[in-house]
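Hi all, long-time lurker, first post. I run a small reading group and we've been trying to get comfortable going from sequence to structure in the token notation. Rather than ask abstract questions, I figured I'd post a concrete chain and ask someone more experienced to write out its structure so we can walk through it together at our next meeting. Sequence below, copied exactly:
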Amino acid sequence: MKAEGRFGAALLLALLGGCAGDGFGPDELARFDGGRITLAELDAHVLALGASERGRGPVQPGFDWLEEELERLFQQRVLLQSPERAALEREPDFERRWRARSAPLLARAWLQANPPAPLDEAEVRQAFESQKALLTRPERRMLYNLF
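-- Answer (accepted) --
Happy to help. Here is the structure in token form:
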């Protein structure tokens, strides 16, 4: 699969307004057979990262960590279009991880599509009154001195 990309200083130029004359659009950062990665897509990818992944190092003139994220996004896009994708998706380890990661997303989507009925204040009071004895008794704790 043929791939072209601009990194490092070219990324800085793209952030400041783009480069002309190299065949890339003003917001294009990478191009490969069947696709391209724009500055907006890289921004969305970086914002989707967790705070611990996003802050792996200080932003320096070379944008080392940003360049790594662009490379990671590039590899993901190329893999999505590769013929080996189907074989990878059939591996048992992949299927197990896919199910584990997709379950919370599916549950959240189902809850959005089927919101629970609103609670009635009388029902809440009745539930509280039935559990009141458990909620007013102090918690018991056992402490042991090991030394």
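A couple of things your group might point at:
The first helix runs from residue 9 to 15.
The chain is about 55% helix and 10% strand.
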